[in-house]
Amino acid sequence: MNRCVKCGFPEGGRPGVFFVNNVCSACINSEKKKEINFKERQEWLTQFIKENKSDNEYDCLIAVSGGKDSHMIVKRLMENHGIKNPLLVTTLDEYTQTEAGKHNLKNIAEVFDVDHIYFRYKPKTCVKEMLEGFENELNPLKLLDERMVAGDGIPMKIAKKFGINLVFYGESNFEYGTIENLDIFHPMSDDKVKYIFIGAIYPYSIYDSYQEAKTVGFKDLDDCNEWNRQGTVENFTQIDSIAYLTHQWCKFVKFGAQRTTDIACRLVRENKLTRDQAILLIKERDFVCDPMAKRDFCRALNITEEYFDKIVDKHANDTLVKKDIDGVWKLKEFIEK
Asked: First and final CA of the chain: distance in angstroms?
């Protein structure tokens, strides 16, 4: 398996990521950020909000999960850019919320004293769609993710209902290397509603978001002492619900990379790990499907773990992964050495 010479990300590990001279496009983009004048962009945003924020009850809408990025976005918009009364919108999944996730959703509205809409999509339909996505593409949350970010998604519909013309999101796909430019506006922006990536205003970093969020009451899994996750390298990203980790793991048998790879390689770009450390973590952890997450996933979809394994086996990319003597899918790269 060809890996990025800078961060260790595998070629083919994410659709849309490309390599130039053995360097992945996420690392290429990381270098591009050094040439961007973010202070100038922050000054621009303050003026843009002043001139364009909604002339009604709400200044803007912010799509939030309740996680570290959500806290960072709300904090910076309210402290640095003149936002006084945002409307927060969360689209829920059907997985079991963690205690940290419950706290953080409660905290983000309370600490900033703002209105917060929880949107629960039709539960039976949602489960049916998740099962179909899992069975057909090994991508159970495909439609839920689209409802968050598509042009006719839930935050967009709510913004239009309330006459809100500014909507904020976190990072764009630039961070993952699947697009080449760090544009401020989402492509679906039009004359009526502007969709803005905060990750294009402040240089995005998971540790930056985490540190900002902790100052306003964000809790991670360690704070709540509830779950020592397997198959990860930290306990503070994507911690809102338990089974979401299994959704992430499904990428491993298809593309040869999942959450450990994503975060470890990002931490190399953020100078928190070396490439060799990242590769070691990937070898030791990336193949692991957290058992607690798997159980919750099967509960939510009303399937057995045996059926889960059957569907995974059907979609596994046997050019990349192979079962070891214990029947566990692992990268051929590491098994056959």
From this structure: 12
Q: Which of 97, 91, 90 is nearest to 116 (CA)?
A: 90
Q: Splitting the chain (337 residues) into consecutive groups of 10 residues, what average pLDDT does each group show?
A: 96 96 98 97 97 88 94 98 96 94 97 97 95 97 82 85 94 95 93 93 96 97 93 94 95 96 97 97 97 97 98 96 94 81
Domains and CATH numbers, the chain: 38-207 (3.40.50.620), 229-335 (no CATH)
- The structure tokens 């930056």 sit at 208
In this structure, what token pair is assigned to residue 269? Answer: 């770009």
Region for residue 49 given its phi and psi (left: phi exceeds 0; alpha: psi -120 to 50; beta: otherwise)? alpha
Name residue 51's amino acid.
E
The partner residues of 241 in beta bridges, in order of sequence, read 97
pLDDT at 53: 83
Residue 328: closest CA among 296, 277, 284 = 284
